[in-house]
Amino acid sequence: MQKLDENFEIKKDKYDFKTNIKPVYQVGQGLTRSVVEEISRVKKEPEWMKNIRLRALEIFNSKPLPTWGPDLSELNFDEITYYIKPEDRKSSSWDEVPKEIKETFDKLGVPEMERKYLAGTVAQFESEGVYSKIKKQWEEKGVIFMDMDSALQKYPEIIREHFGKVVPASDNKFAALNTAVWSGGSFLYIPKGVHVDLPVQAYFRMNGELEGQFERTLIVAEEGASVHYIEGCTAPTYSRYALHAAVVEVYAKKNSKVRYTSIQNWSDNVINLPTKRAWVEENARMEWVQGSLGSKITMTYPSSILRGEYASTSNLNVALAMGEVWKDNGAKVVHAAPNTSSKVVAKSISGRGGMSVYRGLLRINQGAYNSKSSVQCDALIVDDISKSNTYPHNEILDDTAVFSHEASVGKISEEQINYLMSRGIREEDARSLIVLGFLDDVLKEIPLEYSIEFNKLIRLEMSKMGAVG
């Protein structure tokens, strides 16, 4: 087996495997009013949720595909399957999860990660959560962590109060699509003053082509609470595309702190179009950490609305565009209150013909006096056939604001490679060291176990590169 060093073996099939399982139920292809009503009926939802779905379908049908980014014309909404139910049961013990599905998550290391590092886990396969559990010590403090469908049944008033307020269906075409056909996802509620000192994790797995995954995640951190939520995503490779269009809504209430880490390693046939946004109240803090490794197309711009005085946010983003892929990543921040602060750091690497794009919005409203923000966009191009573009949009409407923006584009040169090789380092390892050094200030914010895996995957991609030049 080919090796990069004695401690790292290339394992191309860790994520790229298919699970042979016959779903207990799925709707037919295409998106119609009857399909939306059927999804709601099968889930035994309250009437108000069905009405939200149907209104969102109207909005979806009224909005055109966005044309300002990558080409999305491959999408044919009439050939996608929008709901696949893999199993009737929802389990709180891995022993109760059907064998084939459990083996899938075993291969991905999810149960082991739960045992060693996590306060709780939600695992989704296709359109439904199949497993959820929060450790007893946190459950006794009132922390709720479960799949979103179960939460709608058990806590309908909390869901109704918050659903669609941070990301309304009218926000964009794919937010409307998610609102119409959403299934699965996770609900995380942290009561006032509770600090969850271990991360919780949700893991989303798609298994087919010409299907969609439309999970809905809702996080509510009450006053003075804190939590770290980690999201992992993978899928096997097919010749036809699959669509992922999630919605994430976060409420960081007064004096709370929420960190949202997303490690996305979709296969290269997945079109990834999520919408993620947080409301950040007085003296609260929202942190986004995002690693985008896979997918054919990704368009994602985690957003924070700083609504309360002294609210703050950071957005750290790594995008790897290797091969014939388009990574359109960035961030949005709106300073809507005085004395708020934000920091955006975006790193991208392009190779083997990949396209990376930073697309961001930074707005400091009039009246948001003494607000501070910095935006840093750095791109590394590792060959002569790849590209990187930057499209910042900054609106500074208050004279007392302090704002800085810097951007850089660099290449791995033959001189750098030759210097490291003269010190006894192999060419592919030299290239990996340069890339990992470029990413260091973001990778150090990713939890250790995920950072190790992230490093391995980056080194794997670097091993595929030919000679520099």
Overall form: globular
Number of domains: 2
Radius of gyration: 22 Å
What's the main sheet like? 13 strands, mixed
Assembly form of the protein: single chain
- Give unreliable regions as ranges: 1-10
Mean of all residue-level pLDDT scores: 87
- Number of helices, where a helix is a run of at least 4 consecutive DSSP H or I residues: 11
Strand content: 35-45%
Structure description:
This protein is an alpha/beta fold and 469 residues long. The protein has eleven helices and 27 strands. The strands form four sheets. Strands 7, 8, 10, 11, 13, 14, 16, 17, 19, 20, 22, 24 and 26 form a 13-stranded mixed β-sheet that branches. Strand 5 and strand 6 form a beta hairpin. Helix 2 runs antiparallel to helix 8 and helix 9 packs across helix 10. 50% of the residues are buried.
What's the layout of helices and strands?
Elements lengths: L2 E3 L2 E2 L15 E2 L6 H10 L4 H16 L21 E2 L13 H10 L1 H8 L2 E6 L2 E7 L1 H4 L4 E4 H7 L1 H7 L10 H9 L4 E5 L9 E6 L6 E2 L2 E6 L4 E9 L7 E3 L2 E6 L4 E9 L4 E3 L2 E6 L4 E8 L4 E4 L2 E4 L5 E11 L3 E10 L5 E11 L3 E10 L7 E10 L5 E10 L5 E10 L2 H8 L5 H17 L4 H16 L6
Helix pairs in contact: 1-2, 2-8, 6-7, 9-10, 10-11
